[in-house]
Amino acid sequence: MPIRDVFLPLLSYPVSASRDAIGAVVDLAENLSKNDAAERHKQVRTRVSAVILETEIESDLYFAGAYIGEFLEEQRKKIAANTQRLIDDFTKATAHRAVLSQWRVEKRNPFETQNLLVEEAKLHHITALPVLKDNDNHQHIAERLIFESGRPVLIFPDRPPIPISKNFSRVAVAWDGSRQAARAVADAMPFLRRASHVRIFTVIGEKPMPGVSRGAEIAASLASEIVDATFEEVRKEDIDSIGNLFESFIADRDCDLLVMGAYGHTRLREFVLGGATQSILAAPPTWVMLSH
């Protein structure tokens, strides 16, 4: 199924999404609106649906003090200004572009925000979430979207050191033979069909993975989908973290998108994530599509 509906959550507090992050999602949606080989007979524009979160802060989240009222008022003014800026940036970014767009503002406290985003994500083909490096709030939101929405989630670095691509011409797929990896390949087919080349890769030397040998078969089977794909094994050395290995693989091969399955389960109401999932959520090196 083509991706024709992208959900874009935009947080206003404590740090609001950047103008470049909004523009990157609009660029992506416009690229998805272009006809691919399977749809040459029609033109359908992709819609970007933004929910702008005007955070409601509550006094009991802070220590009481002589200046608490003044502090809260300053934060509320900051949130209102950030919210208006996000509205302006989104409307300007989507004006005169080959996309459909809609937006609305929701006032929620931080806890209600996460619940709202999970429920909203269920209604769209995919969620695109800008993530600040090592931002616990962004990471927790990404976790909940991935594990609770039942939809693929596309995370990408907000304020990256270098601009990220808007055209996924070179795609890397992390394959370990798991259900999650198979789901990720299926969810990513609209991107894989448009790519000029797809690299299926498996990390060896880390842990036994019974289904790893099927990676070459996955690459071969994509030929029936008009996808140019190859398979390779990448050895993990003891000094490497799995996150650094993924990042190096993507950088060395100049990949625009990483596709991977996400691992996690609940224990004492906390997510315990696989090493690769944890590293990628904390600091996505480029666009990363995760499925669970």
Q: Please, could you describe this protein's structure?
A:
It is globular and about 60 Å long. 39% of the residues are buried. It folds into 2 domains: 153 residues, HUPs (Rossmann fold, 3-Layer(aba) Sandwich), CATH 3.40.50.620; 122 residues, 3-Layer(aba) Sandwich (Rossmann fold), CATH 3.40.50.620. The strands form 2 sheets. Strands 3-2-1-4-5-12-9-6-7-8 form a 10-stranded mixed β-sheet, sandwiched between helices. A two-stranded antiparallel ribbon has the order 10-11. It is 37% helix and 25% strand. About 2% of the residues have low confidence. It has 9 helices and 12 strands. The chain is of the alpha/beta class.
Present the secondary structure layout.
Layout: E1 5-11, H1 19-33, E2 47-55, H2 68-94, E3 100-108, H3 110-121, E4 126-131, H4 136-148, E5 153-157, E6 170-174, H5 179-187, H6 189-194, E7 197-204, H7 215-221, E8 229-235, H8 242-252, E9 257-261, E10 264-267, E11 270-273, H9 275-282, E12 287-291
Parallel strand pairs: 1-2, 1-4, 2-3, 4-5, 6-7, 6-9, 7-8, 9-12
Antiparallel strand pairs: 5-12, 10-11
Give a summary of the structure in a few sentences.
The protein is of the alpha/beta class and 292 residues long.
Approximately how much beta-strand content do the residues carry? 25-35%
Total number of helices: 9
What value does the Rg take, in angstroms?
20 Å
General shape: globular
CATH superfamily of the largest domain: HUPs
Strand arrangement within the widest β-sheet reads 3-2-1-4-5-12-9-6-7-8
**Strand/helix succession:** EHEHEHEHEEHHEHEHEEEHE
CATH class of the largest domain: Alpha Beta
Low-confidence stretches: 266-272
Helix fraction bin: 25-40%
The termini sit apart by 18 Å
Structural class: alpha/beta
Oligomer: single chain
